[in-house]
Backbone:
């Protein structure tokens, strides 16, 4: 399957995905941050708390973040879809009160690492491939 | 609303108990698993988050009456974002 590529946004790598809830599908643009979290972090995305109200299920406990976000944050399970990749799965999301300007949240390393990722030879785009 | 509140409290208490047991005892059936709870009962012990969510959705469509416990992830670390 060829990679799905998105143009850089504010000159930063971006991935676009849908949050799937029983009522609506919501498209979100996330900054792709391979330095966000780790491959063992108990979250794959960071989204606004307000987005997490469409969550499938809350997860017991909180995760401690540092850096751009400092403190303890709730974790949720949400269904995420990238149609062009044929990807749909439940992922763990940390809910935060604010996100990077121009984006709806952060796609962290554990999420990006599910795929092959990079610019695939095009410096003005960032993409994912299975 | 009040009924939902009481279910949430029951779920939360059970989730805390499951989490404690799964963390303290590596031989516990909950250790290194995702545990789905609905209406104050353990519904599923799963190897993957997706498996847990599927079983929870089939058992209780109202997500407000459900809670998940993640005993796979390490919640004791601090993660830089």
Residues:
């Amino acid at each position: 399957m060829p990679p799905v590529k998105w143009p850089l946004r504010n000159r930063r790598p971006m991935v676009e995905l849908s949050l799937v809830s029983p009522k609506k599908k919501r498209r979100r643009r996330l900054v792709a941050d391979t330095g966000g979290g780790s491959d063992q972090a108990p979250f794959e995305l960071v989204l606004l708390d307000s987005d997490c109200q469409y969550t499938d299920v809350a997860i017991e406990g909180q995760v401690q973040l540092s850096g751009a976000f400092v403190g303890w944050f709730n974790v949720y399970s949400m269904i995420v879809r990238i149609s062009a990749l044929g990807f749909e799965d439940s992922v763990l999301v940390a809910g935060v009160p604010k996100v990077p300007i121009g984006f709806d949240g952060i796609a962290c390393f554990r999420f990006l690492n599910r795929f092959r990722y990079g610019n695939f030879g095009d410096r003005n785009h960032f993409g994912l491939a299975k | 609303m009040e009924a939902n509140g009481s279910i949430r409290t029951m779920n939360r208490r059970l989730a805390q108990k499951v989490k404690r047991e799964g963390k303290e005892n590596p031989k516990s059936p909950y250790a290194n698993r995702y545990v789905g709870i609905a209406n104050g009962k353990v519904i599923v012990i799963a190897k993957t988050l997706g498996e847990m969510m599927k079983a929870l959705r089939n058992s209780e469509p109202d997500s407000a009456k459900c809670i998940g416990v993640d005993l796979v992830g390490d919640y004791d670390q601090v993660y830089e974002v």
